[in-house]
Amino acid sequence: MKSMHHVSMAGCGPCGLSRRQFLAGCAACAAAGSGQWAVGSGQQAVEIQHSAFSIQHSAKAKVRLLFTHVPSTGPIWPNIGYDFERRKKELIEKLSQAAPNVELLPATAQNPEEAKKILDADPQAGAPQADGYLVYMLGLWTGAPQVIGASGRPTIFVDDLYGGSGEFLIAYAAARRAKQKVAGVSSSRFGDVAEAVRCFEILKKPGKSVDDFLAACEAARRKGTKPVGDMSCPEDPLKTVSVDECLKRLKSSVILVVGRDPGGEGKAIEEIFGTKVVPLSHAQLHEAYTKIDRDEAAQWADRWINQAAKVIEPKREEIEKSGAMYLAMCGLMKQHNAQAISINCLGGFYAGQIKAYPCLGFFQLNNDGQVGACEADLQSTITMLALGYLTGRPGYISDPVIDTSKNQIIYAHCVAPNKVFGPEGPANPYHIRSHSEDRQGAVVRSLMPLGHMTTTVEINLGRREMIFHQGKSVENIDQDMACRSKLAVEVKGDIDKLLSYWDQWGWHRVTFYGDLKGPVEEISKALGLKMVIEA
After folding, report:
1. Which site among 117, 121, 124, 175 is 20 to 30 Å from 410 CA-CA?
2. How many other CB atoms are there within 10 angstroms of residue 324's CB atom?
3. How far is CA 416 from CA 77, 124, 411, 487, in A?
4. Model confidence over 241-274: pLDDT tens digits?
5. Is 464 exposed, middle or buried (0-12, 13-18, 19+ CB in 10 A)?
6. Computed over its alpha carbons, how large is the radius of gyration of the chain?
C-alpha cells in the first residue's frame, strides 16, 4: 500500500505521507539476542557485544549484518505481532553456514539515528572494523538503509520478501541512481543472498577493490535471475473506446478524496484530464455511514459471503459493517455525481474517525465499472479511471514485490477485483479475509486468472509521465505475510531495469488484464504524457 507509495525519505521523489509510515513510526531498537549490538533510542551510547555467531579470524571479511524494521506492535509489513527476533536468529544461522569465510557482526536499526550510531561506532577503539554492510530489510520505513548507502561503504541491500519490499525498492533504486557502493538482492531463493554475501570475501584479497566487489555482486545477481520464459497467452479480445470518447468522459467525471487535501495533485488532475477532484472529511463519510439502513448492509454481506469461496477470519458483523461502508460511499458518490472515490483509510480507521474499512466496498465498485482506490492515492485513482474508461476493465492497485529468482513481480494488496475482464466478464474465485497488517476488518483475496498478459501502469502527475511494464500472470501466492491478494506475473522484458524507477515513482502500481500497450501509447500521446518503459 503505497504512498510509499508516497514516502518522504531521501530519493523517494515527489511523495507525501506513507500509509505504513503513518502506522509504523519509529521506536526503540530491540536487540536480537546477545549476538547483536543493542542500539536503543533511550541509550546514551552504543553497547557493543561480540556476536556468538562471529568467528574471530583476521583473514575473514567482517560484515556488519544490519537488520532494519520497526516494532511489530502495530500494523506493519509483514504483519502485526511478527516475530522479528526469531527471523533474525534464523538468518544469522543460515548466513553463517552459507558464508563461513565471512564474519558476521549483527545489529539492528529501527530509524536513521540508530543506523548513524552504528556507523559512527564501527571504527571506535575496541569495536571490530566492518569491511562492509549487509542491510537486511525485514520491515518497512525505518530510513536506516539510506543512511548506510550514503556512507560510501561497500553495502548489500537485501529484501526479506513481503517484509521490507517497499523500502528496498525505493532505497535500492535511489542508491543506483546516486551511484552509491550498493548492490541489491530481491529473491525468494536464499542461495542468491548467500552468493552475494560471499562476494564480501573479495574485499580481503590483495589488489581487489570495492568496484570488484560490486561487479561480483552484479554478476551473481544476473546469474541467479531466471531468464524470460514463454510469454504466449490465450486470445483476449480487448474492446476499447476511442481516446476522444475516453477524454470526454474524464472531463465530465468527479473523484472524491476522503481524509486528505488533494493539493497539487488535485489541481494537476483537473488541468491534465479535466476531472474534478472533490475533498471530503472522514467526518462526512462517517456521518453517511451512521445513516445507512443496516438491513440493506446485511444484504450486501449475504451477497459477498455467498459468492466467496471461503470466509476465513472475519465475523459476519465485520462484513455487515463493510456493507454499510460501501453504501455510505455509494451515497456520497451519487450526491456528488462521482465515478471514483479514494479514502485515507488507515488514517481514518486508526484515528477512530471511520468505523469500518472500505476494502469490500472498493472491491464491489471496481467490479461494477466504477473506481474504489486505496489510501487516498490520487495518482493511482486517475490511472484506474482513465484506463478503465478506455478499456472497460478494472485496475488493481498494488505494493509490488520483486523476485529475480523467478523473474517475477508480485502485485500485493488487500483490495482486488474478481471481474478482471470487466463487469460483463467472468468472475474468478475469492476469499474474504482480515486485513493482513493488523488482522482486522474484512478484505478480499482475489484468485485472479493465470496465463494471461497483464499491463501495469502508473501516471505521475508532477513529471507528466506514464510508467509501463507487462507480464504474464502465473501464480496467486498464498503467503501469510503482507497484503492478502498477491498476483505473481512473469516479467516481459528486463527485470533488472524494473529495479530502477521506484525512487522517482513511489511504490504503487496499477495492473490491468490484457495487452494494453497500444491503448496506453494512444492515451499518453493524447494527454501529452511521456511513456516510460520500466522493464
Report:
1. 175
2. 24
3. 18, 51, 10, 10
4. 999 999 999 999 999 999 999 999 999 999 999 9
5. middle
6. 23
Identify the structural domains of the chain with CATH numbers, from first to last. Answer: 3-224 (3.40.50), 243-533 (3.20.14)
Q: What is the 3-state secondary structure (H, E, C) of 353-373?
A: CCCCCCHHHHHHHHHCCCEEE
- Terminal Cα distance for the chain, rounded: 21
pLDDT(522) > 70: yes
Is 178 in contact with 108 (CB distance < 8 Å)?
Answer: no
Among candidate residues 337, 439, 428, 329, the one with its CA nearest the CA of residue 374: 329
φ, ψ (nearest 5 deg) of residue 36 = -120, 165
What sections of 225-358 are H helices per DSSP?
243-251, 263-273, 282-290, 294-307, 316-335, 345-350
Distance CA 171, CA 347 (A): 24
Q: d(Cα 41, Cα 121) in Å, to the nearest integer?
A: 15
Residues forming a β-bridge with 135: 66, 157
Q: What is the DSSP letter of 440?
A: -
CA 385/CA 388 separation, integer angstroms: 5
Q: Which residue has the cell 528486463?
A: 494
Q: Cis before residue 237, ω within 30 degrees of 0?
A: no
Dihedral of CA 343/345/349/355: which sign?
positive
Query: pTM (2 decimals)?
Result: 0.89
Residue 456 pairs in a beta bridge with 469, 511
Q: Cell numbers at residue 275, please? A: 476531472
Residue 259 β-bridge partners: none
| pLDDT tier, 127 (very low <50, low <70, confident <90, very high otherwise) | low
